Structure formats: C-alpha cells, structure tokens
Amino acid sequence: ALEAGADEFLLKPITWEVLRESIDRLLIPQRPRAMTSPEELGSVPPRIKLWGVRGSLPVPGPATVRYGGNTSCVEVRADGEIIVLDAGTGIRALGLALEKELGPQTIKLTLLITHTHWDHIQGLPFFSPAYNSKNLIQILGYEGARAGLGAILAGQMETPFFPVSLRQLPSHLAIEELKEMEFHIGTVKVQGKFANHPGICAGYRLFTSAGSIAYMPDNEPYETLKVQLAAQNGIDGKKARNFAGAERAKMVEFLRDCEVAILDAQYTDEEYKAHVGWGHSSLSSVVGLALDANVKRLLLFHHDPSHDDDMIDRMLEQARSLVAKSGKAMVIEGAREGVEILLELPAQRQLR
C-alpha cells in the first residue's frame, strides 16, 4: 500500500486504538512547528553540530576516536527550526541529546534524507524521539531507487530485520516524498540538487538568517567517470568531457558563496583511481570544487571506514596545501563528530 502511494494502511481486524492512531498521524501539520518563538529568532545564531561523519559503515574504536566512527548525521538549528541531515548511526546520540535538553517539551524537527543507502538511514530505528507520542517528526526526501521513500524506510524495520515496525512508532511521524527542488522549512529556504552517485541521491543547501549551509555527502566528480564510460561504450570523448564540464559548473553554482559546505571527501586521489564509479569524491576534486565556488568554510566529510584519525590528518594537511597554493583564504577542516559551528548573524558581523 505504501509503495502504491497510500499515506496509511490498516490490517484487519481493526481496533479503535489503531484507527485513532492512524487518523492522528494524518491530521498532524505537514511541517513541524518552530521550537523557538518569533521574538527569539533574531537573537539565536544558527548552528551546526556533527553527530556522524563517517561513510559506508560505522567504525568505532581507538583508531577513529578523534574524528568519530558514526555514519552521516548533521544537526542544524536555524531560525527556530531543528533540521537533521541524514539518519546514519549518529542520529542515535542526537536523539538522546534532544530528549535530555528538551525534557517534557515536544520535540519538533524535520529530517532531510539525501538518499536511502544504508549508512544514511540505518540509525533511524534507534532514534529515541520517534518512540514518544508527543513528538512531531517530518521526514523529507526524494524518491528512493526502485521504491518509494516511505517503503524503503519501512523495509529496514520489517520483522526479519527489526522487532518494531515503522508504523508502530508512537511519535507523530510523517514521511513526504519531495517533488520540487526548492521548498521551505519554516523560514529556512532549502534547495535540493541531485548528486552524481549510484541510485537517487541529493544534496541540500539551507539558506538561514546567517548565511547558507551546503550538505552534499555523496558525490563523484563527473569527468573521470564519464570519460571512462565513454571509452568503454564507444562514445565521443569530447562530448563526454563537455557534459562533465557542464555538470560540474552546475555544482559550482549550487555551492556558490556558501558559508559552510559539508562535502564528500572519501578518497585520496590515488584511492579514487580504483573506485571510479563508486559515487564518491577524491580529495583534490572536492577542494577544487569548493575553491571554484568561493566556499568560505569546507568540511571534509564521509570519511572512508578504512581511514583512521592519522590518515584523515594527512588528508587534511594535503587539502590545506592545495588551498594555500590557490592563494585563496578558504578555511578547511576535517569533519569531527561532536564539533559545533556557530554562524554569525548579520548584526554580529557589523559589530566586528
């Protein structure tokens, strides 16, 4: 039923409690309400907190303790909204922190899913706010490859894999499949852009009162892939390069002048040669992309599970060397679990 587009389905025999719960789910607002009052919006600076920065699968242990081993999850507090980017294993700790912070208050948030590969959704069944009936959780994302977004999220919680089904979660949880590339979460404008990654995968740019945040955790540079595929299929290499150049230019415009860009930097340049077509970036390609887009601050994200802290340190040093050679002033950092970044409001910039 969910794959066919239904918002809910009921299994016979139907009890009054189940019917009432289903009706309640359908009657909740399409967007969670802002947690902060309008009077407070101008005084609370938007902030980003990294809860999971790893790609592919979680890798806890002493070798990853500085950068972190949880998979993709980023929290953005902006203009009265709680916006969560992806639901990798990092979302478990986020859920516990929200409950501790807000106590008896209703937790209202929007979860943006970039795509339904496991490392971006595997933490959702362990997100504790979803198990409290007072909470409002809106999940947004584009259609999953070969199935609807709701069906895929429900699938990982079916009986063979998990003891609690998605429809049994007590929270007011609404899943909406996005059709437009631009929409709003409260007053925060969001732009989506499809990435070069197997299946259906998107990135998001959030426009807040203190500037914009871009999140593109899985994306492969076009040129090497397209030229290689062209050679394999007897296609004109020049056409492939022209196409790749045009697509890269679109990505540059998507990232243009953003304050913070959280971008895929899974492979070294040498590693990428053996992983063309896997859907992830090399270090030099992502640094070059951010430089061309005049990004103010770049976070190297989606660390490969085989990369320990020392390896990421070396990649960061190489990336900073590339920035220095460019003569530009872009700040570049390796994404670290637990790090919090505050964006300056316009009034704060004027005071400096």
Fold and architecture overview:
The strands form two sheets. A seven-stranded mixed sheet has the order 6-5-4-3-2-1-14. A seven-stranded mixed sheet has the order 7-8-9-10-11-12-13, with helices on one face. Helix 5 runs antiparallel to helix 6 and helix 8 crosses helix 9. The protein is built from ten helices and 14 strands.
Condensed summary:
With 352 residues, the protein is an alpha/beta fold.
Q: Mean pLDDT score, rounded?
A: 87
Radius of gyration (CA) equals: 21 Å
CATH topology: Metallo-beta-lactamase, Chain A
Q: How many angstroms separate the termini?
A: 57 Å
Number of helices: 10
- Reading off the top of the CATH hierarchy, the class is best stated as Alpha Beta
The helix/strand series, from N terminus to C terminus, equals HHEEEHEEHEEEEEHHEHHEHEEH
Shape, please?
globular
Uncertain stretches of 5 or more adjacent residues: 28-42
Fourth CATH level, the homologous superfamily = Ribonuclease Z/Hydroxyacylglutathione hydrolase-like
CATH 2nd-level architecture: 4-Layer Sandwich
Count of separate structural domains: 1
Strand order of the largest sheet: 6-5-4-3-2-1-14
